[in-house]
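User: I'm curious what two different proteins look like when written out as structure tokens. Can you demonstrate?

Assistant: Sure. I'll show them one after the other, since each token string lines up with its own sequence. Here's the first protein:
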Amino acid sequence: MPSQKLLMLPMTLALISAPAMAADNPGSHQHGHAELQLAFNGNQVDLLLISPAGNILGFEHRPRTEEEQQIADKAIEWLGETPLINTAESTCTVNGATVQNEVANEHHHDPSDEAQHADIEVSQALTCSGLDKSAALTTPLTMQFPRMEHLDVAWAGPDGQGATRLNHGEHSFRPER
């Protein structure tokens, strides 16, 4: 069942209107900036995180050293296993996750090319008990990845949509669902 939910994610997130996401031109690759899109339905949340790899890994090239490989492996594992949002009262459960890492797939580029841009995209299907009763949500992203200076959060659900921006160190937001 989680795979079905993840297949619905692009269609659900497409409901988030352009004005809600237009704050910083979400199509652009800006170091220090990342986007988190949320689609609510009862206690279920589908989410999509898009971030330059540099925000998460500290580099945007294929790992060149054992240390860089360990950084990449650890970050990818964390992003796949850790719920990227939680209610203020409890931790959400990851039902399914996909992490797409362009850095690992750049074998066609010259590994010495420092000017390349690579993104990491994470899709998660979550169950969050008490989601409909929780006034605030939290995300571990801005604390886990200090290079993530701004996290633009947009959401859509049965009761409407909205957006906010979290700055470095901020981790709580109040979506009006």
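Here's a second, unrelated protein for contrast:
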Amino acid sequence: MTPEDLKGLIRSIPDYPKPGIVFRDITTLIGHGEGFAATIDCLAQRAASAKAQAIAGIEARGFIFGAAVAASLSIPFVPLRKPGKLPVPVLAMDYALEYGTDTLEIDPGGIADGQRIVLVDDLIATGGTANAAAELIRKAGGILEQALFVVDLPDLGGAGRLAANGMDVQSLMSFPGD
């Protein structure tokens, strides 16, 4: 399947979560066996080209794509979790949301010093969460130069913010105007 075919599997829900927003729902993509497999293949090829030694994914939808890419490449998966989910001492990073803040945590023992990590997530919007993930990965000793996303919302500028933070950012599809 081509990226355009995959884009056709993303459901668009107008006025969610509030009026004027078009929500890009990936559940229809992951619910399509051939489409999901093709998505993982595309992401895995890009991660392999970046010489990934591990894949990091952001809770929750980044787990779906990231873990599948890691399994496809037979390399480790490193979860970036919401607060209080890891049973070991963690590195934590607060980051800004549109309304308030949130926190990501990582088990620093999950990354070897100097290990090449590729970040995988479902969607890049403003880049706040992905930039926090990048800082945590780097604090844990990982080398992060590549971020892969299924969907980019380019008008929100997240890919540019990640690029300014030293990452090559790639997405399989984009939805301008959202």
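A detail about the second structure: The two ends are 24 Å apart (CA to CA).
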